[in-house]
Amino acid sequence: MITLGSAAKAFVAAAAAAAGTLAVATADGSLSTGDLVTIVLSVLGALGVTYAVPNKQA
């Protein structure tokens, strides 16, 4: 079952990955197709890895 905490954690990680990758990709002043592919892959990777790893029980 998807909990709000797991989904929120994954979305925050994806947003952080997108922001960081976008900042690096646009450092030269342009955005190419390769840059867009890199951004999409970083977002998908962050979503997948963050969602797959369970939260530690307190």
SSE layout and pairings?
Blueprint: H1 4-25, H2 33-52
Helix pairs in contact: 1-2
Beta-strand proportion: under 5%
First-to-last CA distance: 19 Å
- Percent of residues in helices comes to over 70%
Strand elements, count = 0
Estimated radius of gyration: 14 Å
Relevant terms:
mainly alpha
Please outline what is shown here.
The protein has 2 helices and no strands. The chain is an all-alpha fold. The longest helix has 22 residues, at 4-25.
Characterization of this structure:
This protein is mostly helical and 58 residues long. The chain has two helices and no strands. Helix 1 packs antiparallel against helix 2 (33-52). The chain is elongated and about 45 Å long. The relative contact order is 0.21.
